[in-house]
Sequence to fold (267 residues):
Amino acid sequence: MNVTNTASRVFLQYMYRDAYVHKRKLRDYVVNFVIAYPTIFSLAYGYLQPQAYFGTDAHAIYMGTMLLSGNIVLVIMFFSYKLNIELLFDFENNRMIDYQIMVLDPRLVIVQRVLFNSLLTWAMTLPFFPVAKLILGHQFDTSATNWLMLAIILLLGSIYGSIHHLLAACVLQKTTQISSLWARVNHIMITFGGFWIPHHVIYQYSPLLGAIMYFNPILYLSEGIRRAILNQDIFFLWHRSCLALVLINILGLIMVFYAFKKRTDHV
Fold:
């Protein structure tokens, strides 16, 4: 019982420590991710692009809503990257992680990082669509939006982003490889994960490419978001996207445990 209480206390102290560190950066986070990104993406992809390509009718509003819905994927991936890639820098420099795993079970250290970073990513992405609605008004169609469903899929996507980048931090050998992570992995996954083009469009063009996309975890995030906002049958069923992300997150967490153990050589 004492061991459990001690582990819980240390776990909470790590959560408090991260909250204190990021509290000092909170203003920049809000300006960049709660205000700047939604504003820029709303104007560019929710208004200007559909107006230029599709005119001003209802079809343009639908296309603008669909295009803007996928843009949140980039915000989730970029913000979760900023939070979790810090572990790679720690491996190269301070090695504070060595102290952390001495006083807390290494698996709990990973769980704590995933929990905190996921919740912070979720908090920074939740206002994205309400801000977009405030800016675009009727140009952003939320008449069929299930906001609770949207919040859940954003949470699962935030967890995925954290696990994905923690795994990258454990696998990459040095910080100079970060550019390769984005060029060879993240950009490909985002581009072919429904960032701009939904799965059903790609599948109609190339069934083979559409089938390959099923192995891209980001696809289930973008499809789940579009289903929650537009509620149309051409997008994956919401529970299908959620189930896929839950399974992917569990598998990813196990992979992080293994990669972290190998990197730190803990018992």
